[in-house]
Amino acid sequence: MQWVVLVKHWPALEARRDLLEPVPGPIGGLFFRTRLLHNWFLPAGPGLVQASNDRIVVTGSAGGSLVLNTLLETLRCKPGCTVRKVEVAGTRVGFIGVDGAPTDFEVYNP
Which residues contact 31 (CB under 8 A, 6 or more apart)? Predict the structure, then answer.
């Protein structure tokens, strides 16, 4: 996540200047850029990720066993790889574990 847009004031969130940088935006919203570096891979690693509805295409990754942001239970992987849930402390949402990944692969929602 690289941006946060609030349509009403949320003081506890707005106060987190360690995480959010206020930026100008249209009237009617509060706009912030996140200060956290985003990487699809946990831990950070090489690769290009192209995400769209129901599809994540990865090229140039390290391959093998990888962990990506955020799991949907129905996801599948091709070619020749499998998807599993990875628990991450501090979040209720599971992350995407990919096992047996070639350097280029696709995670998709059938």
Answer: 3, 4, 5, 22, 23, 24, 25
* 103 and 57 together in one domain: yes
For the entire predicted model, the pTM comes to 0.52
Based on the structure, what is the number of domains in the chain? 2
- The rounded distance, in Å, linking the Cα atoms of 20 and 14 is 8
pLDDT in tens, 35-84: 765 555 555 667 777 777 777 788 888 777 777 766 677 889 999 999 88
Number of CB atoms found within 10 A of residue 66's CB: 24
3-state class (DSSP) for residue 14: helix
Q: Are residues 104 and 61 in the same domain?
A: yes
